[in-house]
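User: Please fill in residues for this 119-position structure.
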């Protein structure tokens, strides 16, 4: 039974479930699909690292473990509130958003609490 390759449209003969005429065509399609995913992941990772860097700069390398700051300052620094690595709802129903070893919580439309997790 002749079939057409899903990548190059070349006709080939093979098993009933075979989709590609060669290993090269199969790899070409998979690489194309993977490169799209890698681009998206890289974009998100860049945002997360920028957010992490902003919080590191604000808290500094010292002993400061938390800081209350104006949301506008974070926005001007390029902070993206839509990307984070996890969430935590404490027993007082306050929602913390994690970015690696930092967490932030919005008090109101104007203020944000940033906390560095201890090791």
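Assistant: Residues filled in for all 119 positions:
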């Amino acid at each position: 039974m002749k079939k057409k390759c899903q990548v190059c449209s070349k006709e080939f003969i093979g098993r009933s479930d075979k989709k590609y005429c060669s290993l090269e065509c199969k790899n070409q399609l998979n690489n194309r699909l993977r490169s799209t995913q890698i681009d998206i992941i890289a974009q998100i990772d860049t945002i997360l690292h920028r957010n992490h860097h902003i919080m590191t700069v604000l808290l500094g390398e010292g002993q400061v473990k938390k800081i209350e700051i104006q949301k506008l300052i974070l926005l001007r620094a390029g902070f993206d509130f839509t990307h984070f690595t996890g969430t935590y709802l404490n027993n007082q129903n306050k929602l913390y958003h994690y970015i690696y070893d930092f967490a932030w919580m919005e008090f109101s439309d104007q203020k944000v609490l940033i906390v560095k997790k201890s090791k």
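For context: Residues 34 and 86 are 25 Å apart (CA to CA).
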